[in-house]
Design a protein that fits this description.
340 residues; 6-stranded mixed sheet; globular; binds zinc ion
């Protein structure tokens, strides 16, 4: 029975690998076609003179730039450095994994070691530290307890049912507009009360301090020079999805740049590659309410020749894996020896 199960599992894994191999070969073909197309396009004579190539940026201990690692020239000893990979996301705003040079060399050689624990930055934490969370809770409590607050919540309920956007006739629109205007004074008095406004100003001032502290603390944790490899895509901005509070944006990268060396790395395929063997990973399946679903938060390597697989420690968190891959790619590009 057990043997049968094992055999089936191996067969399923092999099938997945075959599918991935087919997908990868298709991607390679597409890439070739793109390059060929590009080559045929450039054959047309160009009128403008090509500008001379920009010289690479020299990086020393005190360089404070945001640069692609491919366009850099090292002016410091990498042995005195520590390299961290950062990946931005929606639920977790930023996941960071820090690697020493020895660990990166091990990764490069495909030797297994336990990946370090990731540092996670969540929007809720920032909201708590800046006081935004407390302000929201205070407003909510005032709405429930005080007379003015209850009036405001009633007015809001009425306005929610009479939105101007959903009015169908001119008469309806005029009525709704009048109703909205009549509630404005009450709402403004509640939300822009001098005390609340003062709190908001304080919050804005504090927010910058709290945000600055995050990269500074990350830098002070190590006595070596910190090089931050940050993924180039997705900064976690936009509307709320699934109630997740969003405080993303470029601020993390910009503040990090002022305190450490920031290298913006191409993060393509980093979340679908195993850093030990550079093969495609798979997501395991889980059962939710009796139905089988893909567990997208976990990544497993099923390559039989991978050391992590052989030691039966082949399951990793998706974000920490992609951070490791980003750091590894950045390391490869820094040392002019492409790994990923
Ligand atoms: Zn692997």
């Amino acid at each position: 029975m057990v043997q049968e199960e094992r055999r089936l599992k191996a067969a399923a894994q092999k099938a997945t690998r075959d599918v991935h191999a087919a997908q990868d070969s298709l991607a390679n073909l597409r890439r070739t076609r793109y390059h060929l197309q590009e080559a045929t396009d450039t054959k047309k004579p160009k009128k403008t003179k090509p500008s001379p190539p920009i010289p690479p940026t020299k990086i020393n201990k005190t360089t404070r730039v945001e640069e692609d690692p491919r366009h850099t020239q090292l002016d410091l000893d990498l042995k005195e450095c520590i390299l961290s990979g950062t990946d931005y996301g929606i639920v977790t705003m930023a996941t960071t994994v820090t690697h020493t040079l020895e660990e990166l060399e091990k990764l490069k050689a495909g030797q297994f070691f336990k990946l370090p624990k990731p540092t996670k930055l969540v929007a809720k934490d920032i909201a708590w530290k800046t006081g935004q969370f407390q302000l929201q809770r205070r407003l909510q409590r005032a709405k429930e307890k005080t007379g003015a607050g209850q009036e405001v919540s009633q007015a809001e309920a009425i306005l929610a049912h009479n939105s101007l956007a959903s009015a169908m006739t001119v008469q309806q629109l005029n009525d709704r507009f009048a109703q909205t205007r009549s509630k404005v004074a009450k709402l403004r008095e509640f939300y822009h009360h001098p005390q609340i406004e003062r709190r908001r100003r304080h919050l804005q001032w504090r927010q910058w301090l709290v945000k600055t502290k995050i990269p500074v603390d990350a830098k002070r944790k190590h006595d070596k020079t910190l090089i931050q490899a940050i993924g180039h895509a997705g900064t976690g901005v936009g509307s709320r999805v699934g109630g997740h509070f969003r405080l993303g944006g470029k601020w993390h990268r910009h503040i990090s740049r002022q305190h450490t060396i920031v290298l913006v790395t191409n993060e393509a395929r980093t979340s679908m590659t195993c850093p030990f063997c550079r093969h495609r990973i798979i997501h395991p399946r889980k059962t939710v309410n009796g139905r089988s679903k893909l567990n997208l938060g976990t990544s497993c390597c099923t390559n039989p020749s991978c050391e992590a697989y052989q030691q039966q420690k082949n399951c990793f968190g998706r974000d920490s894996l992609s951070c490791t891959c980003i750091a590894l790619r950045c390391y490869g590009q820094l040392t002019n020896c492409e790994i990923l």
